[in-house]
What we know:
Layout: H1 4-13, H2 20-30, E1 31-38, E2 46-47, H3 48-62, E3 66-70, E4 75-77, E5 80-89, E6 92-104, E7 107-115
Helix pairs in contact: 1-2, 2-3
Amino acid sequence: MAGAGDALLKLLSAWNEADGEARATILEEALAASSVYEDPNAPKPFEGPAGMAEYLDIFLARIPDAELHPMGRPAVTHSTAMVEARLDRDGMPFARLRFVGTMGEDGLARVTGFVEG
């Protein structure tokens, strides 16, 4: 099993995957079966890889030109990782984000995204 930092970067790569099946595979590899994802733009917490896939479908339908770029390697403390990222639209910076993920036994158990502006 990958560490928290690698799992978090893998999860973030799903934002840029256009193919739904490939995106689902990424989510299965990065997230625990009972994971929870939340952020201020999510209408509710999303549970498990299928819930995260549902959220990304909503997100990508609303912002189809979005690209998410992690800004370096995550900082890791024990089983928790944090990374800053930049969200671009049409190739232009749109928002800065911070993601915090905590590992469980079978992948990231909880991930929270924060929008910084």
